[in-house]
Amino acid sequence: MSAESQGTNMESAASVAKREQVMKWRNPFKRMLDNPVILKELRGRMRGKQAFVLLTVYLGAIAVLIGVIYVFMADRSSYGGWDPSFRQSVGKSIFGAVVLLELLLVSFIGPGLTAGAITAEREHQTFDLLRTTLLSARSLVLGKLGSAFMYLFLLILTALPIQSLAFLLGGVGLGEMVVASLMLVVTALFYCTLGIFFSSFMKRTLNATVTSYGAIVLSFLFIVIVFFVIAYIESLPYDRGPVRDFLLNMFVWLLISTNPFLAAIMSEVILVEEQSLFITSNMPFGNTPSYFLSPWIIFTVIYLFLTLLMIVLSIYRVKRPDR
């Protein structure tokens, strides 16, 4: 065999190996897009008016909020002037308000997109037909979840240019942008999974929707009640110790980290006051320094774990035969 043919064979082998490596990265995405449920749900969702109306209302609400904040800050600037520090405060105010509003809208829209994912199939009497096909329970659940999450992800992406207006004014760094986007994506995934979780256990769409939003409201009320109880206990005269302060700080920190709004606010406060994205030492109770992870890290870990758990339970419930 000549040297030229050997070189050609080596080049072709290298190209094949490179192509296989590229396909190895593409295969997960290809398998996800090959899911017939995802394709059907996305085509049905994007061909109707509801998706574009919701997108318009979503962006309109964010734009109106930014306009109100900007007008309010511009009115204040007539007294204090547009100095650099004031512009930075305006940028931070716009960015923080937009992120909190997005968290609120994502928390409200997510369960509504998936609460009828499985129950609608039962109500339309197509669930038994789906179970007789080659489509597995995992493909069905992940397909319904994937289509809803992709739409919410689209909403988050479309709001990024509006968020970037804060960069023109200053006061917002790349780290804040990345953390805020990560929290939005995790929140969207969690609330979409919450809706499909209740949808897999309920028989009616209305029951699944009410239960999903009821669970969200109860979680907020639980946090408020616990904070009131802690404030009342702290007002009572009794001996305090470092161990008690540490345990109380850990409990309160975990409680804050389980709420997307509180986690986002406290993470921003830590970043502004301590210039840290990952660790904080300022605790609300006691004078002994205690080092804890920033709430957005704990929030991400807890919500991803709960999301995975609800997906597994939903697949098990869909796979289980009705009795």
Describe the structure.
The chain is an all-alpha fold. It has one domain. It has helices spanning about 5-35, 35-45, 50-80, 85-115, 120-125, 125-130, 135-165, 165-170, 175-200, 205-235, 240-255, 260-275, 295-320, and strands at about 280, 290-295. Strands 1-2 form a two-stranded antiparallel ribbon. α4 (about 85-115) runs antiparallel to α7, α4 (about 85-115) crosses α10 (about 205-235) and α9 (about 175-200) packs antiparallel against α12 (about 260-275).
List the helices and strands and how they pair.
Blueprint: H1 3-33, H2 36-47, H3 49-80, H4 84-114, H5 119-123, H6 127-132, H7 137-163, H8 165-169, H9 174-201, H10 205-235, H11 242-257, H12 260-274, E1 279-280, E2 292-293, H13 295-319
Antiparallel strand pairs: 1-2
Helix pairs in contact: 2-7, 3-4, 3-7, 4-7, 4-9, 4-10, 4-12, 7-9, 7-13, 9-10, 9-12, 9-13, 11-13
List keywords for this structure.
323 residues; mainly alpha; two-stranded antiparallel ribbon; 13 helices; 2 strands; globular
